[in-house]
Structure formats: structure tokens, C-alpha cells
Amino acid sequence: MNRQRRSASRSLCLAAGLLVVFLSGCRGSVVHLVSYKDPYFPEKFHVDFMHCAYRTQPGGGIQAVGRAVENTSRGPTTQYLCVDIFWTPIPGKTPADSTTIDALLRYVVASDSGIVVYTGTGFAYPQAALDGSLDIALESGRLRLQSRNGDLEDLFGDTQISGQLKARNDPPTAATLIREAELLAAR
């Protein structure tokens, strides 16, 4: 009977753990950043974008954007990741190369003390999901500081970016979030 109790307890703990992961948004859009600000001691960061949307362009391109808001001791910090995919690879037909890019990236970090904007390129592979959303796998992305305004310092320096965005097809929301990021980046 002791063995059955332990088995039931393990099952309950596993179910509770999966529920926490599911409710916390970890199954959605998570981006991994590796900062080489200090090349000898790279730092890893993970950002969970809770609000993601995309829209398609008339020429066939895709614009996706994610927004994450975090309350810190210094006040709220908002992060935007804008991914502009200008061509879509076809699995099995598009040649794979380590230098291949198909997306322009813009990463904006804004707080009450300032704004930092990073730009770069990367490889983004969009795939339609069953629920109508778009799963975008980011690979081999590189970001560099473009501009800085206010007292917010360069957070990442030269940065590697990868991860997954799960964006819903919502052109008005995508346009609004892209516009928010552009207005902050223009300051």
C-alpha cells in the first residue's frame, strides 16, 4: 500500500507541475537571448512574450510581433520583438546554409528610465498551427545595439537570439504593437 501511495503522490505532483507550466505561458512564445556584452562570460536571458500577433503583407511577407511586460523594482519594463519575414523557406527545397537569413529583427526595451533598441537579422521558419496561429521558429539571429535614449544602459551588447513565437492572425493588433515599438524606437 505504501508503494501505491507514493505512485499516486508522484502522479499528483507531475499533474500539478504540468498545470503550472501550462498556466504560466511557457508553452507559448519564449525567446532565448545570449548576451556577449562580456565575451568571456556570456549571459543567458529568457523572455516569455505573452502577447503575439502577426499580419501578412500584400507581397507575401509576414510581420510578427511579441510584447512582454514585466514589473521590476524600477517600474514596468516593456519588451517588443518585431520579426519581418521577407521570404518563406520551403522544407526539402530551400538549400540550408549557416548564413541564410530571411527575417529582419528589431528588439525594443522600454522603461521609465529610457529606451534601448537592437536590430539584426536571423532565420525564421513560420509554420501554420491547427488553431489558426503561426508558429515561428527563430534560429541564428544576431542583434546589435542600434540606439539608446535616457538612462537605460546597453543591456545585451552583441546578442544571439533564438526561440519560438506563437502568434495569432490578428492584423489590427499586430499593426498596433508594431506601431508602439516603432514610436518608442524613434524617440
Descriptors:
187 residues; alpha+beta; 20% helix; 2 helices; 9 strands
Question: How would you concisely characterize the structure shown here?
Answer:
The chain is an alpha+beta fold and 187 residues long. It has one domain.
Tell me the layout of helices and strands:
Blueprint: H1 2-23, E1 29-35, E2 43-49, E3 51-56, E4 62-72, E5 75-85, E6 103-111, E7 114-128, E8 134-150, E9 159-169, H2 171-185
Parallel strand pairs: 3-9
Antiparallel strand pairs: 1-2, 1-9, 3-4, 4-5, 5-6, 6-7, 7-8, 8-9
Architecture overview:
The protein is an alpha+beta fold. The protein has one domain. It has helices spanning 2-23, 171-185, and strands at residues 29-35, 43-49, 51-56, 62-72, 75-85, 103-111, 114-128, 134-150, 159-169. The radius of gyration is 19 Å and the shape is globular. Mean pLDDT is 81; it is low at 1-27.
How many DSSP E strands?
9
Q: Any idea how many domains? A: 1
Q: Which structural class best describes the helix and strand composition?
A: alpha+beta
Q: Give average pLDDT, whole number.
A: 81
Number of helices: 2
Major pleated sheet = 7 strands, mixed, barrel
Instruction: Classify the beta-strand content into a percent band.
Output: over 45%
End-to-end distance, in Å? 67 Å
For the biggest β-sheet, the strand order reads: 3-4-5-6-7-8-9
